[in-house]
Amino acid sequence: MNISSVNIVRNVSILLAFLASFSLLAHGVDEDTKQFLTNNQGVSIIPFIYIGAKHMVTGYDHLLFLVGVIFFLFRTKDVVLYVSLFTVGHSITLLFGVLNDVQVNAYLIDAIIGLSIVYKGFDNLGGFKRLFGYQPNTQAAVMIFGLFHGFGLATKIQEFKLPDDGLIANIIAFNVGVEMGQFLALALVLILMNFWRKHNSFMQFSVTANTLLMSGGLMLVGFQLTGYFNSI
Fold this sequence. Notes:
Layout: H1 3-21, H2 31-39, H3 45-57, H4 60-70, H5 76-99, H6 106-124, H7 127-132, H8 138-158, H9 167-197, H10 201-204, H11 206-231
């Protein structure tokens, strides 16, 4: 392996490890955002778009899952298909959860989101075929986990008890912002991965990369379950 390949592997591994270690901090809301959401009255389209975009860009659990989803997708149409399934899934439950005040335990839903990361890393490693001789429908899995990711977003919004005045417009704006943030984050990830894929090290270290994804997901599951049991 040449020096260039070693550097690429090291940088990508550092990036994945960074995301994994910080997955525990996913969805943190800064004080300025908290104050705005608490005090806002009426329709505020642009601020909610901004908050949605920032929320997705800093939502490491969503990004880790999407890294797993696109890891072995080499054709643009496949990337678009799978990301669209994920988008439809989390958009449905985000809007439904907030607008219908569906209460879901934040710790448990975030633990399931962590499990989705473990699932995708395990799937990328061929674990289902090797252990069970069966390959689950990957498109259905992405769609289903997208539904859970949407409930995760909804629980964060519901914490702020937004007023009914302008709620529909604000939540739609938030969802638009989420999609914009997702697009920007995925564009960066795809640029890095497409560059890495040009080198032999991509396949050589694919096991390591997906093991890191699973590790990040397991840390998130453990952290959230600990929070849940401490809260009851």
